[in-house]
Automatic annotation (TrEMBL):
<dbReference type="InterPro" id="IPR000182">
    <property type="entry name" value="GNAT_dom"/>
</dbReference>
<dbReference type="GO" id="GO:0016747">
    <property type="term" value="F:acyltransferase activity, transferring groups other than amino-acyl groups"/>
</dbReference>
<feature type="domain" description="N-acetyltransferase">
    <location>
        <begin position="9"/>
        <end position="197"/>
    </location>
</feature>
<dbReference type="InterPro" id="IPR016181">
    <property type="entry name" value="Acyl_CoA_acyltransferase"/>
</dbReference>
<dbReference type="InterPro" id="IPR052810">
    <property type="entry name" value="Plant_NAT"/>
</dbReference>
<dbReference type="Pfam" id="PF00583">
    <property type="entry name" value="Acetyltransf_1"/>
</dbReference>
<protein>
    <submittedName>
        <fullName>Probable N-acetyltransferase HLS1</fullName>
    </submittedName>
</protein>
C-alpha cells in the first residue's frame, strides 16, 4: 500500500507562501471529518500553522501533496528539544511529532504512515535519540498507526484540565496564603533544584522563562511561615531552597492567547465556527457556561499553567490558590477564557488539582520510540514502565 501511494503522493517541506491557505482548509476538513467526541485544545492553527513549533531552534513542517493535481492531503509538524531524565541523569535529544493530519477522503491509504516516516527520518538525521508523540486516548486510528505500524511504546498517560476563569475565581484567594512573584533568576534556581527529581524534565527551562509569552513564576505559601530566601539582600538564590517553608507550591504561566485564537469573520458569523469546532465545543464550551452564539462573536484564548511543583501537608490549599491567582491574572489578559494545565496520571499533584464539575478533562497518551543507539540503556527514559512525574513543555501548546 505504501509503495503504491509513493508514486501518487509527494511529501515535501511546507512553503508558507504557497501552502498556508491550503493547510488551513485541510485543518478545517480534518475537524469536520473527525469522529472523536473529545477534542484537543490546540487544533485551531489557521493563519499560523507553525505556531506549535516555531519556538524550537530545530523544527520542520511537512505536507503531503497529490502529484496529480497538487492538492494537499496531509500535514505533520516536528521539532527537537533537549530533556533531562532521572534515569542515570541522562540528557537526550527528544524528537517530537506534532499535529499529524490527513484529509478524511484520503485516509487508510498510507499517507499518515508516509508522513510519520518522513518526519522520523528528519528527526534522526538531526540527532534525535528518541521520537515522541501524543494522541488522545479515544483516537483509535492514531493509536493503531503509532503502535502497530510505527512500533511506538506507551510511555505515559496524561490529563489536560480545562477550567473557565469565572469558575476558578469562586471563593477567591485565602487571606492566610501569600502568592509572590519570583525573579527569573530565582525561578531558574528553584526549578533547577526541584525538576531534577521528575522522570522527565526540561533542560532549557531558563529559555522558556525568558520567552515573551511566559508571564512569570510564582510561589504560594502560608503567611504564618517566613520564607527568608525570597527577600534575601545577598541575592543568593540558593537561600530560596534552604529556607523554604514546610508547605509551598510553585507554578509558571504561559500566555497562549496570542498563539491560539478563534477568530470568526463577520461574513461567516456562525457556520464557520460550528463546522470547525463541531466537536470541540462539546468539550470546552460547556465549561464556559456561556451560550455558543456568544462565544462565536469573540476570540478565544487561554493561560497554561506549567512547572507545577509543591511540597508539604497543606499542598491542596496552596494549589487551589494557584488556580484562583491565575484566574485573577487572566481577567486582565485580552481574550482569555480558561485556565489549562496538564499532569501525568501518577503525578502527586493530581489529587490536588480542583476537580469541580465545571472542570473538563482530556485524556492523552504519550508514545516513545528509541531511534539512536548512542544512548546505552533503553531504560534511560523508563521505557519499561509508566511515567507520570513529567514536566510538560508549554511551547507544545
Amino acid at each position: 500500500m505504501v509503495d503504491s501511494i509513493g508514486d501518487k503522493v509527494l511529501v515535501r517541506e511546507f512553503d508558507d507562501g504557497r501552502d498556508i491557505e491550503m493547510v488551513g482548509k485541510l485543518e478545517k476538513k480534518c475537524e469536520i471529518g473527525s469522529n472523536n467526541k473529545g477534542t484537543s485544545i490546540f487544533t485551531n492553527m489557521m493563519g499560523d500553522p507553525l505556531c506549535r513549533i516555531r519556538f524550537y531552534p530545530l523544527h520542520l513542517m511537512l505536507v503531503a501533496e497529490l502529484r496529480q493535481n497538487g492538492e494537499l492531503v496531509g500535514v505533520i509538524r516536528g521539532c527537537i528539544k533537549y530533556v533531562g531524565t532521572k534515569f542515570g541523569g541522562a540528557h537526550v535529544k527528544l524528537g517530537c511529532i506534532l499535529g499529524l493530519r490527513v484529509s478524511p477522503r484520503h485516509r487508510r491509504m498510507g499517507i499518515g504512515l508516509k508522513l510519520v516516516r518522513a518526519m522520523e527520518e528528519w528527526l534522526i538525521n538531526n540527532g534525535a535519540h528518541y521520537t515522541f508523540l501524543a494522541t488522545e486516548r479515544n483516537n483509535v486510528a492514531s493509536t493503531n498507526l503509532f503502535t502497530a505500524k510505527c512500533n511506538y511504546r506507551n510511555l505515559s498517560s496524561l490529563v489536560i484540565f480545562v477550567q473557565p476563569i469565572s469558575f476558578a475565581m469562586k471563593g477567591g484567594l485565602s487571606q492566610d496564603i501569600k502568592v509572590e512573584k519570583l525573579t527569573i533568576d530565582q525561578a531558574i534556581s528553584l526549578y533547577d533544584n526541584k525538576l531534577r527529581g521528575k522522570d522527565i524534565y526540561l533542560t532549557d527551562i531558563d529559555a522558556i522563562l525568558k520567552e515573551e509569552l511566559s508571564l512569570g513564576t510564582w510561589v504560594s505559601y502560608f503567611k504564618q511561615d517566613e520564607w527568608i530566601g525570597l527577600h534575601s539582600k545577598e541575592k543568593n538564590n540558593e537561600d530560596i531552597i534552604s529556607t523554604s517553608p514546610g508547605s509551598w507550591a510553585m507554578f509558571s504561566i504561559w500566555n497562549s492567547c496570542e498563539a491560539y485564537k478563534i477568530h470568526i469573520k463577520k461574513s461567516h458569523p456562525l457556520k464557520f465556527f460550528l463546522e470547525t469546532l463541531s466537536h470541540a465545543r462539546d468539550k470546552i464550551f460547556p465549561c464556559l457556561k456561556i451560550p455558543i452564539c456568544d462565544s462565536v462573536e469573540k476570540p478565544f484564548g487561554f493561560l497554561f499553567l506549567y512547572g507545577l511543583h509543591g511540597e508539604g501537608e497543606r499542598l491542596g490549599e496552596l494549589m487551589k490558590s494557584a488556580w484562583s491567582f491565575a484566574s485573577r491574572l487572566a481577567e486582565n489578559v485580552k481574550d482569555c477564557k480558561v485556565i489549562i494545565t496538564e499532569l501525568g496520571v501518577s503525578d502527586p499533584l493530581m489529587e490536588h488539582v480542583p476537580h469541580e464539575s465545571s472542570m473538563s478533562r482530556i485524556d492523552d497518551l504519550w508514545y516513545l520510540k528509541k531511534v539512536n543507539g548512542s544512548i546505552n540503556d533503553e531504560d534511560d527514559l523508563g521505557m519499561t514502565g509508566e511515567l507520570g512525574n513529567v514536566v510538560v513543555d508549554p511551547r507544545d501548546f
